[in-house]
Each structure stands twice: as C-alpha cells, then as structure tokens.
Amino acid sequence: MKNIELLFETYLLNKTDDNLYSLINALQPILGSYIRRIYGIKKDYEDVFSEGNIMLLENIKKYTTSQIKIPFTPYIISCIRFFALDLWKQKKINTVDESFLESIEDSNDTPDIILEKKDWQLTIFNALNKLSSKERDVLVYHYLLNKPLKVLSNNWNIPYSTLLKQNKRALKKMRKLLKGEIKNG
C-alpha cells in the first residue's frame, strides 16, 4: 500500500504517462482480486478488466482535480470495490431467461404433458420475475443453478444466516405468488 502512495506522489510531482502507467500497474493485482472475488471469473473477464483500467484512469484524474480529503490508497481501493460491486449488480441475473424452461422438457412427453409443463414453467417464470432481485437471485442460484447457500454467502459477502433468511422469505413469497397464479389461472 505504501508503494501505491509513493507511486501516486511520484505521479503528482511529474504527470507523465510512464508514472501513470506504473501507478495503474501497481493497482492491477487489487483490481483483479476484487473482480475475481466479487464479480467472479466469467467469459468476459478481460473486458471487465479493461473497464476497470478505464475506471482507474478516471478516478485518478478525479482525485487529482478535486479536493478529496482521504488518502489516495483507501480512495482508489474503494473505487475498485464499488466498481466490482456495480458490475456484479449489472451482470447478475436481473430476470430469469426462458432458456431454463426448455431444459425441463423430456422428449418422451406427450403434447398434452408438454403444454401442461409449459404452463407451469410460464407460471414459475412470471412468479420469479415478480420477486425482488435479491429474492430472485437466491432462488435462481440455489435451486436452478444448484449453488449451495454457503458458497453464495461467501461469493456475495453476505452472512450465511442472512442468506438463509432471504431464502426462506423468497420461498414464502414464491408460494404466495404461485397460489395467486393458480387461483387466478
């Protein structure tokens, strides 16, 4: 961390591209760590990493031109952390896509059974989309993607007990929604 402060001070004294490049280079391990820990490693990791570098450049410029009163290192680490959290929020499942509906089909089903399953799938799909994003994420990741709650709590930096409560609340709300759908449908 002292190295980052030192590099930033060097950059402030002599605003050359080399000094900026050295500073950005020193921040790469922190950026990569937060992206992997919060956002996860996905196919678009390199794109996300590039976006992170652009964010670093913008926030270094912002820090040098404004009167921010906290030291540079905590400021830039907070920027990296919030960047990774924002990415996670943007890229996570906001709505359940219909591709999971097709995965439930069995080729041996009769047309009547297929239609009945499709109706149920659509009912579940509509009910899931009526949940809040937190509730939907817990149910989708845990039940559809088979992710253990313990793993989700670690990945999302949420206490396990909180995630259990969210799961229970989401299931209760889902039951109510499905009963409403069944009564109305």
Structure, described:
The mean pLDDT is 78. It contains 9 helices and no strands. Helix 2 crosses helix 3. It has 2 domains: 90 residues; 86 residues, Arc Repressor Mutant, subunit A. Helices cover 78% and strands 0% of the residues. The longest helix has 25 residues. The protein is elongated, with a radius of gyration of 23 Å.
Global geometry = elongated
Low-confidence stretches: none
Task: Give average pLDDT, whole number.
Answer: 78
Count the helices. How many? 9
H/E series:
HHHHHHHHH
- Provide the number of structural domains: 2
Rg from Cα: 23 Å
Reported for the largest beta sheet, the result is:
none
Relative helix content: over 70%
Which structural class fits the helix and strand makeup?
mainly alpha
User: Strand tally, please?
Assistant: 0
Strand content: under 5%
Q: Oligomer, anyone? A: single chain
Distance between the termini: 60 Å
Descriptive labels:
78% helix; 185 residues; Arc Repressor Mutant, subunit A; 0% strand; mainly alpha; 2 domains
Topology:
Elements: H1 2-13, H2 17-39, H3 45-65, H4 72-91, H5 99-102, H6 111-130, H7 133-144, H8 149-155, H9 160-184
Helix pairs in contact: 1-2, 2-3, 2-4, 3-4, 6-9, 7-9, 8-9
